[in-house]
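Task 17 of the worksheet. Students: predict the tertiary structure of the chain below and write it out as structure tokens. Keep your answer in the requested format; marks are given for formatting as well as content.
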Amino acid sequence: MKLANPTFPAPLDAEKRRDVPPVICYSPESLPLPELAALQRARRAADKVGETVIKPREARCFHVAAGQFFRISSVEGPQVGDLNLWNAADLTEKFYSGKTRALHGTHLSTGDRMWSSFPTLRPMATIAEDTLDWYGFDPFGGAVHDVIGTRCDPYTHKLLAGGHYHHCCHSNLTRALAEETGLPLHEAELLVHDVLNVFMCTGFTRDTGQYFMKASPVRPGDYIEFFAEIDLLGGLSTCPGGDCSAEHSSDITACYPLLVEVFQPRTPPAGWASPGVNGYDRSHGL
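Model answer:
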């Protein structure tokens, strides 16, 4: 929290310290670039092989094999979704939103990748197409598809509002993963992780740096499409906040389903190979 009236006076060189130019922490130029043209050619010659409808205020899991595409679509009304990804063969390898944010920025779009957790740290999925890529950053600093929010959850709800709310995205994803895998609920919960907030429009306020949300620009027919770099188990929750224009844990906000479709290319993208795990030797200096 930044105090409106700081306790300590500014030093004489305060403005000089503030004026130091920033340095990007991780140079995106050093990342391996996705071959978007090859992905798009493969996608044009792909057949639909599956679909999953996620009901309002619920979550479901879905499978995508390495080399397939999956699309998340708005179908009835503006709706935000919270996306988890796991390695289908090892659920401890899961989406790492913090490192993805450090590598690509606060919001994702075409060409960005969803990276996995340590120690594997490799691309799990690449965004191949995004019908909301036109939005950019608005005058408030808001943008779409964020990796800064964690997911609405019953613990923060209890802390701030009291009571027990079970249809938040964390609980939705926990129930869905437990149902899909047969894991006990408490074990499944430990595998649920910070999300890609699909279609959600968010940012940070300029004065206090607080996380904000605003009405999503998504409309029926909009979609974001991913290319699976490894075999994936996905989990998607339709947020109880609907388009997140007012609140994100609500039983009265208008909510709508989301559609997940899976597509199998007839031939793999030219030059593509599923990425191996990170090459760090894990010796940690010993």
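Marker's comment: The CA atoms of residues 150 and 245 lie 17 Å apart. The first helix runs from residue 14 to 18.
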